[in-house]
Design goal:
single chain, 94 residues, mainly alpha, 4 helices
Amino acid sequence: MNKVIQAETYDFGGQAAATKTTALPFIGFMMGAVGIGVLIIGIVLFFNAEEKWKVFYDRRPAPPTKEKIKRNRIIGAILMVLGVLGIIASFVFM
């Protein structure tokens, strides 16, 4: 009888289940990891807008147009800003 009472009063979830905050550190970590990845891709796109590194495109000899260079720089800058914002936002959840 005593063991039945103990089983009914035992808190299997612990204190973390009562506060419901167990996933927030993981979400913060994932936001930081994704932010770093997006930041790296943005840096590569921004500095490789003239296609000097042969990273994100095929090896055909056609030179990039000025519109494509401008578009790649804008996309790279946007991705860098989003990456930095993701890294900063990850500290809110951690």
